[in-house]
């Protein structure tokens, strides 16, 4: 874990349990150094129960939290699928954020994905670009 990450416990009203969160400094953005320093909250307990409209910790859609967690590198146990990333075009292991979103570690693109069942060839992963919005 990086030194400037601060781990805390907080109660998640959606999951009805205490969860571990990490406060991280905002990602540096070139050319916008004057932006206020909003710390980014990353929930380490993000998971399959994090459905619903809004994550109570981030006040954002749960998938946004999942992407933050994937981007943070704080979790290494993602389920992954091999698919072609729409961002970089590489066939890569995409971390499954939820049933619709998969995160490419190579370029940081959030893809939408779906599993297509083929009659003879098994399964294939279809990826697409993330819809607009999010963080
Ligand atoms: Zn990519």
Short structural summary:
The protein is mainly β.
Total beta-strand segments: 8
Major beta sheet summary:
5 strands, antiparallel
Radius of gyration: 16 Å
* Proportion in β-strands: 35-45%
Principal-axes geometry comes out as globular
Share of residues in helices: under 10%
Q: Structural class of the secondary elements?
A: mainly beta
Q: What is the count of helical runs? A: 1
Low-confidence stretches are none
Which H/E pattern describes the elements? EEEHEEEEE
Largest sheet, spatial ordering of strands: 4-5-6-7-8
Mean pLDDT: 86
Quaternary organisation: single chain
Give the terminus-to-terminus CA distance.
23 Å
- Which ligands occur here? zinc ion
Provide the domain count.
2
Walk me through what this model shows:
- The protein has 135 residues and is mainly beta.
- It is built from one helix and eight strands; from the N terminus they run E-E-E-H-E-E-E-E-E.
- The strands form two sheets. The chain has a five-stranded antiparallel beta sheet with strand order 4-5-6-7-8. Strands 1-2-3 form a three-stranded antiparallel beta sheet.
- The model has no long low-confidence stretch (mean pLDDT 86).
- Bound molecules: zinc ion.
